C-alpha cells in the first residue's frame, strides 16, 4: 500500500490522516464485490493525553445506500495517545458497487474525563475503472 496520506482532518489538534487503496486481488467485480484497504494515522498534536474510545463510520455506496458502523476502539484497541504520539492501523471496506465513500468520527476521552469527537475525513472509494466518476 502507498504510504501517501491523501486525506486529513484536524479536530482540536488531533489529526486523522487516511491513505486508501483499491485491492483488485480481494475484489470480484463479476460477483458485485469490490474491496478497499485504508491506513489511518491518528496524531496527537495537543498538549494533553487522549484515549480513543469508539468509532462511527458512515459508508455510502454508488446507489446512495448508507451503512452506519459503530464500535469500541479501532481493530480491537483503544489506544492512549500522549502529546506528540501517533497511532496507525489498517482496515478494509467491502462494497457492492465499484465506488462509494467513507467518513466519520472517533470519540476520545480527555484526561479530565470530557469527551471529544474527532472527525475522520471524507474519502472516496473508487475502483480504477471508475476513478474518473
Automatic annotation (TrEMBL):
Range of residues in the leader sequence: none
Pfam families assigned to the protein according to its UniProt record, in alphabetical order: DUF525
Highest taxon listed in the record's lineage: Bacteria
Annotated ranges, domain ApaG: 8-132
InterPro entries: ApaG-like (IPR050718), ApaG_domain (IPR007474), ApaG_sf (IPR036767), Uncharacterised_ApaG (IPR023065)
Protein name as annotated: Protein ApaG
Organism name: Erythrobacter litoralis (strain HTCC2594)
